[in-house]
Amino acid sequence: MTAHRERKPYRLAVAIAATMLLIAACGSDDVPETDIPAPPPETESPAEEAAAPATTTTEPSIEGTTVTLITHDSFNLSDGTLEEFTAQTGVTVELLEVGDAGTLVAEAILTKGAPLGDVLFGIDNTFLQRGLDAGIFERYESPALAGVPEDLQIDSRHRVTPVDYGDVCVNYWKDAVPWEPVTLDELTFPEFADQLVVQHPETSSPGLAFLLATIAAFGDGWELYWEDLRANGVTVTAGWEDAYYGEFISGGGERSMVVSYASSPPAEVIYADPPTDTAPTGVITESCYRQIEFAGILTGTDNEAGARALIDFMLSETWQNDVPLNMFVYPVIEGATLPPEFVEHTAVPPHPLMLDPAEIEANRDTWTERWVEIVLR
Questions:
Q1: Is 84 part of a structural domain of the chain?
Q2: pLDDT averaged over the chain?
């Protein structure tokens, strides 16, 4: 076993290590958007109606305009992908990377009505409700949503559009565990003592996702579960990279289990040095929490037509087929092409865990504070 050889960090490491959850103090007092009934249309007399000339309206041309896409600093696409959008529409895309995902959402809330850009990409279901409650998005239902499964379209008012998704799961090093675990309960068994490393849920996106997974799985018993994990020697890092490339065997550490992603095993194969055809890691599929990443048109944009075109393009084959190997996530469009490594080495969770975004928003701070009391004090 080459457990302690160094491995080249794959691009997902950048994507996740950057996603610190920094918006806990940036709540908004804005009320949620509500449906306002439209006033009745003005009526004309028959004479006025007969005299009124016929009118037609045309959409303003977007060719030659620019759309600013605000995103996190782990955003990545292949060269030529955004240029293809420009070739199709005549619209140039300018990228504005504002930091991690938490900063991204906080900045959008602070600049509501006078946004720094036109489209925001990178808000996920963990913090979605905060953005929706703040009213930072315009409604838009892309025609391409017809190809997206209903269970990924969790905002029925179409203020945001699902673009990709991934599953946060416990990964294990196959050659270093007494058996390949399949349940969350096994992580508390004495045979797995001092083997699990997790991330802090207040500073790490996968750390928060794993906490939410335990709440979804155990309900009111989640606190007892974490007490058992602590008694069994769980260790905590600030972020994903510290866990995966510090404490976990993949980066030379001693721990055989880590909170990571369902897409981590194929990444181990893709970036293996020396090359390998077999993933050295496995996934506990019953531990997986689904994260859906969304894009939305920002309220106050001065190029709404161009923003809509970019949302449509995010659901095109060009974009959807490009995201797996660039951000190690899954495309949302049914029938999108997956790289062979994803097909061969990814364990797809049959029933990924999820919580309602409104429930997360209402309880997140309480849950994380209680987690700190149980695990770190």
A1: yes
A2: 87
